[in-house]
Amino acid sequence: MKHQMRAEYRSGGDVGAEATVKTWHMVRGDGTTALCGRDLDERSATRSEREWGAMDEPFCHTCGAVYLREVP
Question: Do residues 23 and 60 lie in contact, with contact meaning Cβ atoms separated by under 8 Å?
Answer without folding.
Answer: yes
